[in-house]
Amino acid sequence: MATSDDPTAEVTDLLQQLIRNQCVNDGTVASGEEARSVDLLQQYLGSSGLDAEVYEPQPGRTSMVSRIEGSDPEAPSLLLMGHTDVVPVNPDGWHRDPFGGELIDGEVWGRGAVDMLNITASMAVAFKELVREGFKPKGTLAYLAVADEEALGTWGARWLVDHERDAVVTDYVITESGGFQMPTKEGPRLPVMVEEKGTYWSTLSVRGTPGHGSQPFRSDNALVTAAEVVRRLNEYKPETRIGDTWRRYVEGMHFPPELTETLLSAERLDASLETMPPGLARLTHACTHMTIAPTMMRAGTKQNVIPDSVELKIDVRTLPGQTGEEVHGLLVEALGDLADRVEIQPNDDPSTSSAADTRLWDVLNTVSGRLVEGSALVPFLMTGGTDNRFFRRAGSVGYGFALFSTRLRFEDYASMFHGNDERVDQESLRLSTELWKATARELLS
User: Fold this and answer.
1) pTM tops 0.70
2) Which domain holds residue 73?
3) CA 321, CA 197: separation in Å to the nearest integer?
4) pLDDT above 70 for 331
């Protein structure tokens, strides 16, 4: 392990080790094996005399909390939270070993380098450095390395908030993502995830009638019906909604007046999506629409048997304010006359948000302004989900933030999430480490 004389080398080394631990979470209870990275982080933090509390609701599904206790019970408390699990990977699409953790031209390559082992590592290094420097806060600072974020948080943040609330719930929480530099005529703008879309992940069951594959004419083939269900869901166009967070983001970006007007007009926005670059179009669409993505299908028992059942999984992301009842109605509308043939089994996890007029917002704005000259924060809507939702529901103010250099463009950042050739540059690791240290000192002293 690199020494504290070179924090950038230290966070690079720690990130490489986290990547190599291969804590791949495929959604099954037995996957993840986050205990490997908790063991690593325990050893790393323990060398500075820090104690850690370890929780393991399922074998191998381990989370760890370490704390620097504050001297004033009335002072605000802060949790730095990073998850240790990563999503599965297909090595065929990579130019480097996805679990090699190689350092190439100032960039660390590997699954989790962006989502979000970079933040998990930089938070740990900052936390340890504060201890080394004798930091004595008024408010408590906690570091949480949490399991199972990539599969709904069942054995991680959800379990901890439900069963060990006093150990993890604080006034403020910071986790992924945000903090990439977006250039504007007024200087860089740094998005902070103050709100995130909800999920209405659903399993659709489509029924048919079995028969011999050699006689398909006028058969009741569940797979053929399911194909039409997929087509209708894919072509369905939910209405455009301009939310408060989207409005504040657009206004804060100082776009040209005509573009600002378009981005804030429900009538004009949809047409403009066709002419935007693909990455920007996808993001803009997701921030202003409920989205439906068919993602998995399972059907049939044998090649010469007409299938009588199909299981289809869809990823539905809901906008702030949308209820499960409303979303169910929209799915029925999308299915049309096939709705009676489809059983919808949903998992409703509504949107959550935090206010942007808080002490933590002010501190992050001040600190990041010093680290990235001329920058300012803008609120943003996270189109995916994070563990922040559990803490917001428990009463915490939760933000998604870090700091990334100009070397990591937003387009690359977005494409690498759950994608190929995931990597992060060392300057981004340095900036985030400095951010966590300065934020803790400014907020908790």
Assistant:
1) yes
2) 7-185+352-444
3) 10
4) yes
